[in-house]
Amino acid sequence: MLNKLKVMLFGGKPDHERRRIPRAGKVPAVGGHIARQQLVMQITGPMPRELWDWFVLMGWREVNMKTNRRQVKMLPKVAFANIANANISERETVYRQAIK
Q1: Dihedrals φ, ψ of 91, to 5°?
Q2: Which of 35, 42, 59, 79 could form a disulfide with 98 if both were Cys (CB 3.0 to 4.6 A apart)?
Q3: What are the distances in angstroms from CA 91 to CA 48, 70, 94?
Q4: What is the DSSP letter of 86?
Q5: What is the 3-state secondary structure (H, E, C) of 11-76?
Q6: CA-based radius of gyration for the chain
Q7: What is the residue extent of each domain of the chain?
Q8: What is the pLDDT of residues 13-72, one digit of tens each?
């Protein structure tokens, strides 16, 4: 009720719509950034569609760092290469080590 009143008085979108995770888009280009919560990783090599689908399932989305003003923790550049080069069966373990 209170949210509806705020939207009517001040305009804009309700809180639950503003805070929703953005939809996954196309595969990010080399040099782009992907984020999950407060973690950001730079894409340092080509990303196959299968790897991007895996990142999306883990909650990662592409972000524009030029317009991003959030406080974030940048992962080392080698983190993406380690995850991308890992076998599918080992990927989860390498991922957990990278985000520690």
Answers
A1: -60, -40
A2: 79
A3: 14, 28, 5
A4: S
A5: CCCCHHHHCCCCCCCCCCCCCCEEEECCEEEECCCCCCHHHHHHHHHCCCEEECCCCCCCCCEECC
A6: 17
A7: 26-98
A8: 665 555 556 677 789 999 999 999 889 999 999 999 999 999 999 999 998 888 777 788
